[in-house]
Design a protein that fits this description.
Shape: globular
Mean pLDDT: 91
Family: Belongs to the MoaB/Mog family.
Oligomer: single chain
Helix content: 25-40%
Keywords: Molybdenum cofactor biosynthesis
Distance between the termini: 25 Å
Pfam families: MoCF_biosynth
InterPro entries: MoaB, MoaB/Mog-like_dom_sf, MoaB/Mog_dom, MoaB_proteobac, MoCF_biosynth_CS
Number of helices: 5
Pathway: Cofactor biosynthesis; molybdopterin biosynthesis
């Protein structure tokens, strides 16, 4: 049985940049994601920059997944190993189901681009209250890889044999 639809379904997507140093002018990763998702035909629900603070991240993502307005959350930044990199720690407790394949595939693809440095990425994905949440590293290149090589297809109802759209709530 096919899990793909024949029609494009525009999704409502929120973008969160986690950074202690970026602002709207310097946030090239968040800007890339907002441009890419709208170019693909999706709607930008909200774009926010927060400091790398586990509780601030968790509060904002919790708000997005609690309501029906946001179907997908794209997070850039805070996925490394420093003491300030808390994005996965903030997000993982919120997930109903972890999408292990997202992080695995992201690291596989970036291995081909960066070699063994990819092991330092804690990119993760999951579902919470019928909302997909994807955490990517903060570089624009990493966001480009995550979007163009994984999420663009998986957030398109026409992608066969399956995609994430059927698992999401309606906005």
């Amino acid at each position: 049985m096919s899990h793909a639809n024949n029609a494009f379904v525009p999704l409502s997507i929120a973008v969160l940049t986690v950074s202690d140093t970026r602002n709207e002018e310097t946030d090239s990763s968040g800007r890339y994601l907002t441009d890419a998702l709208t170019e693909a035909g999706h709607r930008l629900a909200e774009k926010v920059i927060v400091k790398d603070d586990k509780y601030a991240i968790r509060a904002l993502v919790s708000r997005w997944i609690a309501g029906p307005e946001v179907q997908v959350v794209l997070i850039t930044g805070g996925t490394g190993f420093t003491s300030r990199d808390t994005t996965p720690d903030a997000v993982l407790p919120l997930l109903d189901t972890q999408i292990d394949g997202f992080g695995e595939l992201f690291r596989h693809i970036t291995y081909q681009e960066l070699g063994t440095s990819t092991v330092q990425s804690r990119a993760v994905g999951g579902l919470a209250n019928r909302t997909a949440v994807f955490c990517m590293p903060g570089s624009t290149g990493a966001c480009r890889t995550g979007w163009s090589k994984i999420l663009l297809e998986q957030l398109d109802a026409r992608h066969k044999p399956c995609n994430f759209v059927m698992h999401l709530g309606s906005a």
